[in-house]
Amino acid sequence: NLNDMLEQIERLVLGMRQVTENIAHDLRSPLNRLRSRLEVTLMGEASEVEYRDALLQTIDEASDLLETFNALLNIAQAESGQLEADSKDFNLSALVRNMAELYEPVAEEKSMTLTSDVARGITVYGNKHLMSQALANLLDNAVKYTPEGGNLTLVLREAANRPELIVADSGPGIPAADREQALDRFVRLEASRNSPGSGLGLSLVRAVAQLHCADIELDDNLPGLKVVLRFEEQESQRV
Questions:
Q1: Which residues pair with 156 in a beta bridge?
Q2: Could you read off the pLDDT of 106-149 as tens digits, one per residue?
Q3: Is 60 exceeded by the pLDDT of residue 187?
Q4: CA nearest 202: which of 222, 188, 221?
Q5: pTM for the whole thing?
Q6: Which residue from 207, 217, 224 is spatially nearest to 71, judged by alpha carbons?
Q7: Pairing relationship of beta strands 151-159 and 113-118 according to DSSP bridges
Q8: Is 32 exposed, middle or buried (0-12, 13-18, 19+ CB in 10 A)?
Q9: Whole-angstrom Cα distance, residue 184 to residue 37?
Q10: CA torsion angle for 15, 16, 17, 18 (degrees, to 10)?
Q11: Sign of torsion, CA 67 72 76 78?
């Protein structure tokens, strides 16, 4: 019990240290840009339209900063185990079906096809809100990096008595040498440098997977990327 307590304290301190370092390092530049824009706007005589445009851009950047900050906190909490108290059994099948219905019109807007195959009655023990956010991150990435007319696949099944969640796309994928690095915080691979994002999506997915004692694997979908989450063997109730 004493060792468990010390390990928990170490995880909490390490998680707080990491999130503080990341905030200090990676949020400094956007904050400087935000301040510079406001200062430049105030230096000269600007029209009402110009002032309005500057304020709208400032609001957009502030929203991005808040999203990044919240993502960092969620990652730190998941990695440190702070959210274990909110964990309980939840219906993963129902969650995945709802996410499929939510993203079908999003895929249609880009002329994509989203195919889902969701087994019924699979339940897991964990944090439903975080799992929903992790799945949303995976689907967001799949939509973002798949060209128009591509294919997306969402699968939930039991394999070797273990729940298995798969999100696959037909985009450019991630080279095998970069897949482990892609799970780190603030990593933007060369192919995604010019696309919007903070580089925290897959990092949050990995943290949520660890919280749910699930293995995460990035694989080649030939073409595209296939992300697989394999949960521990659990009893399922068919619903």
A1: 118, 165
A2: 999 999 999 999 999 999 998 888 898 889 989 998 999 899 99
A3: no
A4: 188
A5: 0.67
A6: 207
A7: parallel
A8: exposed
A9: 31
A10: 50
A11: positive
